[in-house]
Amino acid sequence: MIWLNLTLVIVMVIGFIWSVFGWKRRSILHLFFGGLFILTPIFYFLGWMVVLPLVPGIALFISYFATGKLKRA
Whole-prediction pTM value? Predict the structure, then answer.
């Protein structure tokens, strides 16, 4: 169990690095995968396994919102 937690923390760090890289270069793909890699371990650690199928949609929304592709009212 400790190895799973350690692996998920490493995945979160990689996701954060990818997100920062995607934000600097305005790359939606890097932001999307970075968001996936950050959100999935967070929901696992919180015990919200029911929310895991929604992670790709949430990550896609975050990536579009962060790059400014959405029109704000």
Answer: 0.71
